[in-house]
Specification:
By secondary structure, the protein is α/β, with parallel strands linked by helices. It has a single domain (9-256), classed as 3-Layer(aba) Sandwich (Rossmann fold), CATH 3.40.50.300. The chain has helices spanning 47-54, 77-83, 100-104, 118-131, 149-161, 179-194, 206-212, 235-242, 253-256; strands spanning 9-18, 21-31, 35-40, 62-67, 70-72, 85-88, 111-112, 115-116, 167-171, 198-202, 215-220, 223-229. A hairpin with a 2-residue loop joins strand 11 (215-220) and strand 12 (223-229). Helix 5 packs parallel to helix 6 (179-194).
């Protein structure tokens, strides 16, 4: 779903260094509600550092962050969560010995008095999965250990939208999944955007990127070299940017976010 509205989340000129190594060098990046934005680049390009900065895990050294047009600080994960920014990491952080409902509310359990409100949690978990048209799970009380890779990814993504989050960042959501499971997860990514969320997908799989993304940002050695409309580019061109064979020296990346 293409959406050229005002960015909900935008960074301008952000930097991050570890000792003498400049990992992010004046990065501009913006995402719109109701759209999927892909972030691609080779290993060591700076993708993880950018995402950790947006999640408040490793605050940026410099630059500015804007949420709904207002400058904000992201100095710890609580600040990011309060704004509605959620990251689903590659390891998913699910507990195999707990069921789907328990995983979706892990650390945020609902209580009625001094006891857990199991009925309310189960109802909300079911409503969230239903809103995302998830039909691959037979029971909300299944242990996560019994789920397939695609189902586990689905639970992790559903957990990320349970709390009315506005921006969902997915780190390699289809890694190690089979063809059918990959298709399920990519369909879910599209539904997140259709529901009005701003979705960021980090992926090495350009076939997946071209299937779901509206925009593609390319990082190369800590520099954001281009922002492309998926409909106006191809995988060969993107690979050239990823490998450093092509650059857009004069592009105003963040500024394009609202007007491309």
């Amino acid at each position: 779903m293409m959406n050229d509205s005002q960015p909900i989340l935008e960074v301008k000129g952000v930097t991050k260094s570890f000792g003498a190594v400049d990992v992010l060098r004046g990065i501009d990046f913006a995402v719109q509600p109701g759209s999927v934005t892909a972030l691609v680049g080779d290993n060591g390009a700076g993708k993880s550092t950018l995402i950790k900065g947006l999640a408040g895990i490793q605050p940026f050294d410099g630059g500015a962050i804007y949420f709904e047009g207002k400058e904000v600080k992201l100095e710890d994960p609580k600040q990011a969560s309060a704004l509605g920014i959620e990251v689903v990491y590659q390891d998913l952080a699910l507990c195999d010995n707990l069921d789907i409902v328990q995983n979706m509310f892990l650390g945020r359990e609902l209580k009625r008095g001094v006891t857990l409100d199991e009925a309310h949690m189960e109802s909300r978990a079911g409503e969230t999965l239903q809103s995302l048209s998830v039909r691959t799970v037979s029971s909300l009380r299944q242990k996560v250990s019994s789920l397939s890779g695609g189902q586990r990814q689905t639970v992790a993504i559903a957990r990320s939208v349970l709390w009315n989050n506005r921006v969902v960042i997915l780190d390699e959501p289809t890694a190690a999944l089979g063809v059918a499971q990959t298709e399920q997860v990519l369909n879910l990514v599209k539904r997140l955007a259709d529901n009005g969320l701003a979705v960021v997908i980090i992926s090495h799989n350009l076939q997946d990127v071209f299937q779901v993304a509206d925009y593609i940002y390319v990082l190369y050695l800590g520099t954001m070299v281009t922002r492309l409309k998926t409909s106006e580019t191809n995988s060969g061109e993107v690979v050239e940017y990823i490998t450093g064979g092509r650059t857009d020296a004069n592009s105003n990346l963040a500024g394009e976010g609202a007007s491309a």
